[in-house]
Amino acid sequence: MEMENFYQRFCKEGFDENGVLNYFEPLPADNFNFAYDVVDEIARLDPNRRALVWCNVAGEERVFTFREMKYYSDCCAQMLTAHGIKKGDMVLLVLKRHYEFWFTVLALHKIGAVGVPATNLLTTHDLVYRFKAAGITACICSGEHCKVPEYVDEAIREYPDIHTKFIVRGQREGWLNYTEELKKFDGRWERVPTSKDDPMLLYFTSGTTGMPKMAVHSMAYPLAHIITARYWHNVHENDLHLTVSETGWMKAVWGKLYGQWLACASIFVYDFDKFVPGDLLHMMEKYKVTTFCAPPTIYRFFIKEGMEGYNLSSLRYSTTAGEALNPEVYNRWFEYTGLRLMECYGQTETVMQVANLVGMQPKPGSMGKPSPLYDIHLVDEDGYDVPTGVTGEIVINTEKPHPGLFGGYFRNQEATDAAWHDGYYHTGDTAWRDEDGYLWYVGRTDDVIKSSGYRIGPFEIESVLMEHPAVLECAVTGAPDPVRGIVVKATIVLTSSYQPSEELKKEIQTFVKKQTAPYKYPRIVEFVTELPKTISGKIRRTEIRAKDRQNAQNSR
After folding, report:
1. 26 with 196: CB under 8 angstroms?
2. Where are the alpha helices (DSSP H) in 15-65?
3. Pairwise CA distance, residues 502 & 382, whole Å
4. Where are the beta strands (DSSP E) in 27-152?
5. CA-based nearest residue to 291, from 263, 328, 249
6. Which of 270, 298, 341, 505 is most buried, by CB atoms within 10 Å?
7. CA-CA distance, 434 to 387, in Å (whole number)?
8. Which top-rank group of organisms is this from (predicted)?
9. For 212-242, what is each residue's pLDDT tens digit?
C-alpha cells in the first residue's frame, strides 16, 4: 500500500518557487494521540510495514512491523495499568537503546501517562532530585550493564513514593521482570480517551547554568516533528533512518520516533553502551542505512577513524544537530561521502527552530533559516530587533502560532516567567543573521563575552581552536582582568601527542590571531585534563567562569 503521503492527513504545507518548505500548519484533532492515530492506524492500513530494525553488540537482531508495534504496546498498556500506572502518572524511563522503549512509550501514550525519559548516567543524587521535582511514581529501567535500578532503590529511601518498578533485561529483588510480565497479556486494549492538550512527555533540560528544569510537551507535540523527519532528515516511506541518540535524550524522539513514523519510514537502532566509530560505520554499511543524523562529534570521530574501508553507498542524506557545526567537519564529511551536512538548531523546550531544509543550499557553519513553524526574531537586551550582521537573542513570537513549543516549566513559574515575557519565548541562545537570511550561532546569552567594548561569541573562537592539531576539546569564556575588565580565555584539553607548555600557548594564540580579528584571540590559555560538563555532555562554561571569578577575588 502506498503510504508516502500518510503524514498529510495531519497538516497543511506550502512551498516556495524553489521547492523549499515555507508554510506548515499541524492539524491535530482534539483527541489526537500519536500511538492510536499514527502507529495503530499504519498497523491497520499496512500491517506488515517495517517499523523498527534493532540489533546489538552481541549480534542479536529483531525486526518489528507496525502490526507488532501495536500488539506489544497494547500488551504493555495492559501490563502497566494492571500494576497501578494510570493517566497522569509520571513514569521514569531509563531504557538506553532497548527496543522495549518503543513498546513502553507508546503504551504510556495510550494510557495517558507521562513518560520521563532519562539517561543511565544518572546517580542516586540525580534521581532524588528528579523524583521530587517531577513527582515520579513509577520506574521502568534497564538492568543490562546499568546501575540505575540500584540507585533507584537508594533514592527511594529519601523519596518513598515510587509504587511500581519494572526491570528490563535483568533481575533485582523488589522489581517486576518486564519480559516475564509482558507475556501474561494478550493485547486486547480499548482506546482510552485523551486530549491533544494532555501532558505526554517531560524532559529535564541540560542544566548548563543551574539545576535542570522540566519541560513538558503535550499530545499534539509529535505533529511538529513532521518537518524534522520529512524536510530536515529528508525521510521517505522506504527509508531506514538512524539517529545516534540514546533514548534518555530528547533527540531520540526527534530522530527515533515521531516524525519518522509519521513519514512511514523505518527506524534503525544499534544498541550499544560504548561508542566505537568503526562498529557504527559497519552497522550502517551492513543494514544499508539511507538517512543519518548525529552530532558533529560523531562525524569528527568517523573522519578520524578513516572511512575508506566502509561502503556507505546506501546513505543518501546526512544531518547534524546538538552542538554547533565546525566548517572543517562539514568539508571533510563532504570529501568522504559527497553528502552535505544539513545542520539545525532546537531545544528541549521546542522542536526544530532553525534549519537547512531539503532544497536549501547550506552554508558550512550556519544553522540555516528559521523554520516555518515559528515567527523567529533576533532581539537585543531591550527586546528590539537587531539589524543584519548584529548578534541578538533568538526568540519565538508567542503571539503567533507556535506548535511544538512547550507550555512552560513544570512546577516552576519563576523560570517560566523568565523565559516567556513581552510576547516572546526567550531561548537564551544568540545568533546573527547574514544578508541571505541564514543564522549563525554565537552562544548562550550568558556565554557572550563583552571585552574592551566588543561583543565576542565563543563558538567562532572555539571553531578556530578545534582546527589546531593540539586541541582535543575547548571552551572559550570571559575571564576577569584588572585592566580590560574581561578578556577572552581558552580552556583546552590537549590531544595525547601534545604536552602543556608556554610555547604551545603562544603557538595557539598566534594560530587564532591569524584566522580571526585580533581582539578575539584568547589572552589567557589554560590547559586542563577535562572540561566540566553536564550529564548530557554539554560544557558548563558557567562553572569555568565561577572558578575564575573566585580566583580573581582571592588574588586581590
Report:
1. no
2. 34, 40-45
3. 42
4. 50-56, 61-65, 90-94, 114-117, 136-142
5. 263
6. 341
7. 9
8. Bacteria
9. 899 999 999 999 999 999 999 999 999 999 9
Please tell me the predicted confidence (pLDDT) of residue 134.
97
Predicted confidence (pLDDT) per residue in 300-357, tens digit: 889 988 888 899 999 999 999 987 788 888 999 999 999 999 999 999 999 999 999 9
* Strands ordered across the beta sheet of 352-355: 61-65, 50-56, 266-271, 240-243, 291-294, 317-320, 341-346, 352-355, 369-370
Residue 554 near residue 480, CB atoms below 8 Å: no
Q: Is the pLDDT score of 446 beyond 90?
A: no
Helical axes 327-337 vs 296-305, angle rounded to 10°: 50
Asked if 404 and 350 count as a contact pair (C-beta separation under 8 A), the reply is yes
Distance CA(436)–CA(265), nearest Å, equals: 33
The CA distance from 89 to 226, in Å, is 27
Sign of the dihedral defined by the CA atoms of residues 419, 422, 425, 426, in that order: negative
Residues across the chain: 556
- Band (pLDDT 50/70/90 cuts) for residue 382 is very high
Looking at the DSSP bridge assignments, the partners of residue 444 are 429
Task: Name the one residue in this structure whose C-alpha cell is 500488551.
Answer: 75
Model confidence at 76: pLDDT above 60: yes
Cβ proximity of 278 and 307 under 8 Å: no
Is beta strand 439-444 parallel, antiparallel or unpaired with respect to 424-433? antiparallel
DSSP state for residue 35 in the 8-state scheme: I
Q: Which has the closest alpha carbon to 544: 498, 485, 480, 495?
A: 480
Q: Cα–Cα distances in Å, from 185 out to 91, 105, 177? A: 20, 17, 14
CB 226 within 8 A of CB 24: yes
User: Distance between CA atoms of 462 and 86, rounded to whole angstroms?
Assistant: 48
